[in-house]
Design goal:
CATH architecture: 2-Layer Sandwich
Distance between the termini: 26 Å
Strand order of the largest sheet: 1-4
Biased composition (Polar residues): 102-111
Number of strands: 4
Keywords: 3Fe-4S, 4Fe-4S, Electron transport, Iron, Iron-sulfur, Metal-binding, Repeat, Transport
Function: Ferredoxins are iron-sulfur proteins that transfer electrons in a wide variety of metabolic reactions.
CATH class: Alpha Beta
Radius of gyration: 12 Å
Bound molecules: iron/sulfur cluster
Number of domains: 1
Region (Disordered): 82-111
Shape: globular
GO molecular function: 3 iron, 4 sulfur cluster binding; 4 iron, 4 sulfur cluster binding; electron transfer activity; metal ion binding
């Protein structure tokens, strides 16, 4: 089992999650983060920290696609452990449906 970052992180990227993870298993893309499922120890402390409620346990239904996306990009994107400012328009995108279309495969800055 692992926790998974899902659609509502896209273009919100508040980054509250990275500071609480005891094993530093968040990786940063241009407009979202992912969790490395091989490193996540299922502690669950990140889930309530996410203002966008984008972090879910992979035991929830219909998350296979997001789990695969997390696993893939955790290998390609840089590790991130320090919170930075969220995008200026993060609030405008919070909760918007269909954000998958906004996903960027480009890497983020990392630490
Ligand atoms: S706190 Fe939530 S919205 Fe922010 S980067 Fe982490 S998963 Fe994404
Ligand atoms: S569940 Fe724990 S180990 Fe997994 S990403 Fe969240 S804080 Fe890190």
């Amino acid at each position: 089992m692992s926790y998974v970052v899902t659609e509502n992180c896209i273009k919100c990227k508040y980054m509250d999650c990275v500071e609480v993870c005891p094993v530093d298993c968040f990786y940063e893309g241009e407009n979202m983060l992912v969790i490395n499922p091989d490193e996540c120890i299922d502690c669950g402390v990140c889930e309530p920290e996410c203002p966008a409620e984008a972090i879910k346990p992979d035991t929830e239904p219909d998350l296979d696609g997001w789990l695969a996306l997390n696993a893939q990009y955790a290998k390609e994107w840089p590790n991130v452990t320090m919170k930075r400012e969220p995008p200026a328009d993060a609030k405008d995108w919070d909760g918007i449906a269909g954000k998958k279309a906004q996903f960027s495969s480009n890497p983020g800055e990392g630490d």
